[in-house]
Prior knowledge:
six-stranded mixed beta sheet, 43% helix, Four Helix Bundle (Hemerythrin (Met), subunit A), seven-stranded mixed beta sheet, Rossmann fold, 15 strands, 3 domains, alpha/beta, 462 residues, binds guanosine-5'-diphosphate, Gyrase A, domain 2
Amino acid sequence: xxxxxxxxxxxxxxxxxxxxxxxxxxxxxxxxxxxxxxxxxxxxxxxxxxxxxxxxxxxxxxxxxxxxxxxxxxxxxxxxxxxxxxxxxxxxxxxxxxxxxxxxxxxxxxxxxxxxxxxxxxxxxxxxxxxxxxxxxxxxxxxxxxxxxxxxxxxxxxxxxxxxxxxxxxxxxxxxxxxxxxxxxxxxxxxxxxxxxxxxxxxxxxxxxxxxxxxxxxxxxxxxxxxxxxxxxxxxxxxxxxxxxxxxxxxxxxxxxxxxxxxxxxxxxxxxxxxxxxxxxxxxxxxxxxxxxxxxxxxxxxxxxxxxxxxxxxxxxxxxxxxxxxxxxxxxxxxxxxxxxxxxxxxxxxxxxxxxxxxxxxxxxxxxxxxxxxxxxxxxxxxxxxxxxxxxxxxxxxxxxxxxxxxxxxxxxxxxxxxxxxxxxxxxxxxxxxxxxxxxxxxxxxxxxxxxxxxxxxxxxx
Length: 462
Ligand code: GDP
């Protein structure tokens, strides 16, 4: 991650794919010069068009056309300029708004870079906003939360955090602990003079309140962390065993094409579903992990499907209970020692399972048609994800980093309380540890490593 703020960065800031309007965003000293050189416009441009509305300085806007490279035509473009430090990054910034076609946007980005900007790295705009003091670390993470938000609740919580939802209680807590530390240290300075700045009972009570504060913040963080972890569940098995039907049954609506013809689901169908408390992405590989790969497109699809299975938190290996086992299925059964794979029998409404067919002990018998076994499958999925995903170290990320710091802060406060009756020095030392940990969370104490980890998770253009 570079912290060089002197060059001008540029990126497509709108989501991938087509849209009515696309945006190429720039930030850095040369933004205005580059943007003005690229846009031909009859409108006279002057900074005095910027408006002040309830304290927010709006950008200056100018309409014109931009000439794109190669055989692409001139296209209508609106330029927004933030010449002052009212921009997100507190640097001169510009946005080119044009029709949201991916090739047009890429061509526009290309000429912007030819004119002197360089491609932004993921999260670099937000990194600049952070380094300019526009956001603290938790707010920067909240930007990420807003981008990642999957539902109304997550969005509300990320927006709340962006508006200071976590930053404010955290800094209030730090202030409170700093006051407490000041009183303790004053007491230590006057230890021979028998002046008491804070009684043991007050100290104990304030430490208990601080612990409660840390726990509240940890709870808020926890709900965000849990919501943010989307588990990947991959359905594999031969074509026509009922994977698409199972996907629909688990996700609740009809999304995949269901057909009697083997191999109908041509592409991966992915659906989001909430299973227990867990947000899941269910991926139907359409039997490609089990296909022979006769031609090279099929082979490539098969290797993609295997990759999906390899990246999965959990694989549901689906066998049709109404059919005899194929050679491929027998082979899978004999290799089934992976805890991240669940064997699921489908179409159990058609037949009773025969004990000689399978290791019945571990079998989950389901029917997408009647709904039999689906609740049990959901519960097993939830349990399985719980044990595989909550293992420490598996899920890396900023929410984990914050949770760990909050845990260490709570532990330090606990030790401080245990020392109230014995030593003010030890209490002060533990409060300092708690402050350091809380400081880590708000970004008051940060390192390149932490910044790197936070900002590289952003998408480019944010
Ligand atoms: P996929 O190729 O593995 O995705 O299989 P599909 O979900 O497309 O299902 C293949 C066929 O099996 C369709 O005709 C479905 O209606 C049928 N099917 C799927 N699940 C069940 C089930 O639980 N019971 C019965 N009786 N038929 C099912």
